[in-house]
Amino acid sequence: MKYRDILLIDDEDDCEIFLFAIQKVYGERNYTTRNHAAKALQQLEMQQLQPDLIFLDLNMPVMNGVQFLSEIKKNARLKEIPVIILTTSSQPELMEQTKALGAHDFVTKPSDFSDFVKIFESIL
């Protein structure tokens, strides 16, 4: 696995599923979760978080995922961190918008745990 430090920005319940699925594939690594995109952005800007990869939900309170993605890609130090959108949406226009903003990939969250595991096997 080329990514050592992974950040997930998502709802608390989804973070738990994410951690179970990714640990099933890669075991113990340095995984960090945040439930608020605005706080995560602030911590990234202050270098309190230094992930190699970010998984980002789009439906977040205060600052949504599109806003977060836009802000991180404006920052010279942070813009090279790959951001993978992991959301319930499958709207093609949203996929195009996030890719245009610099998202590395766009993945629609599955409802089945085994499908979640398959996603991590294929992405990472």
UniProtKB/TrEMBL annotation:
Every Response regulatory domain range: 5-124
GO annotation (BP), single: phosphorelay signal transduction system
Organism for this UniProt entry: Flavobacterium noncentrifugens
Family matches, as Gene3D superfamilies: 3.40.50.2300
Positions of post-translational 4-aspartylphosphate modification: 57
Highest taxon, organism lineage: Bacteria
Name of the protein in question: CheY chemotaxis protein or a CheY-like REC (Receiver) domain
UniProt keyword Plastid, yes or no: no
Keyword Phosphoprotein set for record: yes
Keywords: Phosphoprotein
